[in-house]
């Protein structure tokens, strides 16, 4: 069997997959792809993923992109722990809903609002902040009375959403109005295997790099 993950530590979708890998105690061969240097546009990488994004998992020659589908695949094939991605159709539907809420609403709104700030040094657009706040309110509602985003067990949706939420916090989005989210984030930090190493350290590295760049632009 050969299993490889093409990744870069600071990348949010890569961090989500890496948190799941720790949870299921699986160690694929790690293949760094430096997107800053354009390595994701090489002929070899485009063969694996014409969409030229990381992460990409390659399982015995079978490549799969998109972090959430990678997590579905890993949970279906590489763990006996059914609670991470339940087989029951209704429970699975809730997990899927949370994953699609993340890619379609939470992360998307965060990226629309903050990527111009992060990558282009632009000022913050308050109209877009309102949309991010609305998405965080919805997440807060999902968490009402529940320990995890899809119910009472940690699932792959928690890995997906925790990288969005922690990255938002890392670039200055105020989580304090969303008390369920604040409590859940602490629960993730306390319960996800190697959270500090896999998510926090890579996120801190990303934020440091970003702040350094902002400083350069301000000079
Ligand atoms: N929805 C994708 C997003 C992947 C993504 O955009 N990755 C970034 C790094 S964080 C990337 O590879 N960017 C290079 C590109 O889009 O060409 C996922 O969850 O895997």
From TrEMBL:
GO molecular function: catalytic activity
Chain segments annotated as transmembrane: none
Quaternary structure, from the entry: Homodimer.
Protein name as annotated: Uncharacterized protein
Membership in a protein family: Belongs to the GST superfamily.
InterPro entries reported in the protein's UniProt record: Glutathione-S-Trfase_C-like, Glutathione-S-Trfase_C_sf, Glutathione_S-Trfase, Glutathione_S-Trfase_N, GST_C, Thioredoxin-like_sf
GST N-terminal domain sequence ranges: 1-82
Top-level taxonomic group: Eukaryota
Stored Gene3D superfamilies: 1.20.1050.10, Glutaredoxin
Residues in GST C-terminal domain copies: 88-214
Family matches, as PROSITE patterns: GST_CTER, GST_NTER
Lineage: Eukaryota, Metazoa, Ecdysozoa, Arthropoda, Hexapoda
Signal sequence extent: none
